[in-house]
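pasting for ref
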Amino acid sequence: MDKLTLLKVLFGHQGFREGQEALIDALLSGRDVLGVMPTGAGKSVCYQLPAMLLSGLTVVVSPLISLMKDQVAALTHSGVPAACIHSSQSFPERQQALERARVGAVKLLYVAPERLSDPEFLGLVKDAGLSLLAVDEAHCVSQWGQDFRPSYLEIPEFIQALPQRPAVGAFTATATGEVKDDIEKLLGLQDPLRLTTGFDRPNLFFEVVRVKDKDAWLLDFIGKRPGQSGIVYCATRKGVEEVCALLRQKGVAATRYHAGLTDEERQKNQEDFEYDRARVMAATNAFGMGIDKSNVSFVVHYNMPKNLESYYQEAGRAGRDGQPAHCALLFSQRDVRTARFLIDNAQENESLTEAERRQVRARDLERLRQMTEYCGTFGCLRAFLLGYFGQKAPAACGNCGSCQGETEQWDITLEAQKILSGVARVERKYKNSMGSALIIDMLRGSKRQKIKDWGLDTLSTYGIMADVPRAALSAYVDFLTLTGYLEQGAGEYPVLRLGERARGVLTGGEKVLFTRLKPQQQEKLAPACAAQAQGDEETAELYEKLRALRAKLATKENVPAYIVFSNATLSDMAIKRPQTMEEFRLVSGVGEVKAKKYGPAFLSLFTGEA
């Protein structure tokens, strides 16, 4: 069977997406590859399809158990013989998977990188004959990547121990040029085809929201999306617990995921989310790569992440099926302080030298600066993200909060001069300066005892902004910090200092225009799927009936709903309205195995035959 026929039979696609065919052809010819493709662009097909065409076994190195299980479940439902070996299995289960791979009953075997050092596993691979080694989430091999896993460094040793070197494919969704070079070097790729298809996800709507009450905004946002599934990322475990409790209190079926829970509870909560028993997951970045759920319609970052790599990867959990999805980041200046604290108190990698540790910290702080700049920009958010990853983009995408919003600005040069003068005098009096709250109190002429204890009431700038409401003054300080006129120091109690741009304002030569997005009177809700975007009420109703049937079938088989068919497939089905099995097979995402298995049930909705 040729590759195009196999693509249709197994995965239900009529043709290859950008970059897929070139990567597949390289692997089939025995050449190494390095594929950088955004989440939802079909990276997995690039090694899954060659695995079916090559004679021997394909081993897939994957960092998380949950990710392995999701991929294996999806493959087996499409008729692909796949299995995984992981620590959560019983000994007999692992032995059964090993034996199936040994006798050729498995074409794709998913394992964690730690498994490669197991002598029994090495013996299996030698017996079965390894045709292809695929390394998923390959950025984990680089200490400059956001998810460094030291065990990934053992992969080259495993390859060297094999009697014959297989083709090696490395795949990731997010990698800067530095990380790509690291992947090629550290994995020992030989003359690889390096292919980056681009990082753009046109179906994702990005926005940065600055609100006083994050909880009220979140409840309103989720309330407008009944039935939709989403993730709320929080910076801390405490934040996860509070957000989950808030949502449950308001009647939202929510669950939680963080490293403080037991393995059993994390597993149960993830399954509740994947099986749609809980429609919202509140999580820390521990939930990062562990989700292959395709029907996530929104991702909200309750707090700002530490870097754009993590943000784009986490936001990319939305809309994996190509349907419209919403990615919102709720920003406050406090998030910057939290991120600085997490960087300053990160667990150090003992394998690094002191010089390398300093280098890593400097890199993390620079990434934080870029993340903060993203939150402060009023230009196109998509252009900012793509530019960060080295991809050229139009100045405006038309599908982000900046492009769809209107800005307003006014001259606050005088206010800025007063604020910067106040900070300058505090810095002059106290070498280590003070935090923003105390400086704001000083500028407003507060009578707090702390102000007197520190002698801030003796400064010439004491009370010079007494007529400015505290909320407005705080907003000015945040704006000046985001735009580089001020900067916040490191540590648990960060102090406010003059930034690089302050001199131009203090000397009277530079104007400061306070800019912000006008508050939206009413949020524009994107259609939940292409079927709804048709503007046809009958098509939208049909889509909901298809969803209900899918849920019924998924419950009967005890699998997540998206394993049966993705939202994109249901949407295409609702638009095409197939009447025969041949027409049903033309629906995007309907492979041969699924057509035989589910075709009669779904066709009955269109033909009216029970």
